Amino acid sequence: MTSRPLQPTQLPHRLPEVEEISAGGVIIDVDNGVAQVAVIARRNRAGRVEWCLPKGHIEADETLEQTAVREVAEETGIIGRVLASLGTIDYWFSASGTRVHKIVHHYLLEATGGQLSIEGDPDAEAIDVAWFPLVEVQSHLTFPNERRIAHLAWERLAGAT
Fold first, then answer.
1. Which DSSP string do the residues of the chain spell out, in sequence order?
2. Strand 34-43 versus strand 17-31 pairing type
3. Tens of pLDDT along 58-79?
4. How far is 159 from 49, CA to CA, in rounded Å?
5. Predicted model pTM
6. Which of 2, 40, 85, 113 is spaced 20 to 30 Å from 22 by Cα?
């Protein structure tokens, strides 16, 4: 038996790739002894409502922490200060003929002022915002990776980490 040289295989066309870095987080307020988290709702491309943690793109000369504070305030109406880093989430998606590698840095923030509102969201992505008790916020969040971040916030506040 003779072997044949391998023929080059036609590779499928790959979309151009871009990396996006965002920041946001878990903003906590305590009301009557109950820790609550502000979570936003938005519609995905298919029109389904997704409950998620507030986050967004870095603007010129911002640090990740400054971005998290600004984005949380814009999307929830709640002003906060960063207490700790909760880690990052990264995922891929396609948009406008491009593969996007999104990296989101999450922070634990303490609410220092403001009122719950989506009116400050410049991109009008948020369609609703609500407070959920920290102990049950995971059951409201759409994405498993954000549920993990919320659990890390709970552990951090409970002194487990």
1. ----PPPPP-PPPPPPEEEEEEEEEEEEEEETTEEEEEEEEEE-TTS-EEEE--EEEPPTT--HHHHHHHHHHHHHSEEEEEEEEEEEEEEEEEETTEEEEEEEEEEEEEEEEE---STT-TT--EEEEEEEETTTGGGT-S-HHHHHHHHHHHHHHHT--
2. antiparallel
3. 999 999 999 999 999 999 999 9
4. 33
5. 0.86
6. 113
